[in-house]
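[step 3/7] fold_predict: job queued, chain A
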Amino acid sequence: MQNRFLLVADSGLMDDGIRDEESEEEGLLEKIENEQLFKGLQKLTDKQLQILEMIYVKDYSIKVIAETLQTTPQNISNLHRKALKKLHHIIRKEEI
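[step 4/7] structure written:
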């Protein structure tokens, strides 16, 4: 009876420790199917790629990323913007 009527907050308590580790360990590059985007992502710095992965794969907020990387939210936002701008230029260059 207890297992049938769990509260949403209790669902983590009944976790048997088995998680979908495959999706947690799978990074941004493993999820990309577009060849141009994949090549563009490979040209980014490790930090830029890490920030994009944390934003788009792990769905972290800018504030959480800043705390994790021990920097300011403004710095994370700037690195994110620069990474997207760099990706845009790389992809546009390859299209020509």
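[step 5/7] annotate
Residues 8-23 have pLDDT under 50 and may be disordered.
The longest helix spans residues 73-95.
exit 0
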